[in-house]
Specification:
By secondary structure, the chain is mostly helical. It contains 4 helices and 2 strands, in the order ββαααα. Helix 2 packs antiparallel against helix 3. The longest helix has 24 residues.
């Protein structure tokens, strides 16, 4: 996989890191379609992931084609990253840190 991929519109994106160092494509998408549209898209993508998880649970794990689940997870990751650009990455990361600390404390209690 190449380090940089050019979209049909001529925007280069870094294809190896997440979150992307250059959020130009997602920022342009947010600006082009608007915040409400991005909220709606995120809900739609999350609903599709829920449905695919339900399908995966019903299938025998050896025969389930996980590429469908991978595709839906990727869609949700992109949608969530777009929301983080809208809401503020610093604020999101601060909340993630807070939740990870809380989780760590819960696990410590279970281990001890």
């Amino acid at each position: 996989m190449a380090d940089k991929v050019m979209t049909p519109g001529g925007i280069f994106i870094n294809s190896r890191s997440w979150p992307h160092e250059d959020d130009t494509l997602l920022t342009v998408t947010n600006e082009m379609f608007g915040i409400v549209s991005q909220y709606e898209m995120a809900v739609e993508e999350m609903a599709e992931l829920i449905v695919e998880i339900q399908h995966a649970k019903r299938e025998v794990l050896d025969t389930y084609d996980k590429s469908h689940l991978i595709e839906e997870v990727a869609d949700v990751v992109l949608s969530v990253h777009q929301l983080s650009l809208i809401l503020g990455i610093k604020e999101i990361n601060k909340e993630i840190d807070r939740k990870l600390i809380r989780l760590g404390k819960r696990i410590e209690k279970k281990i001890i």
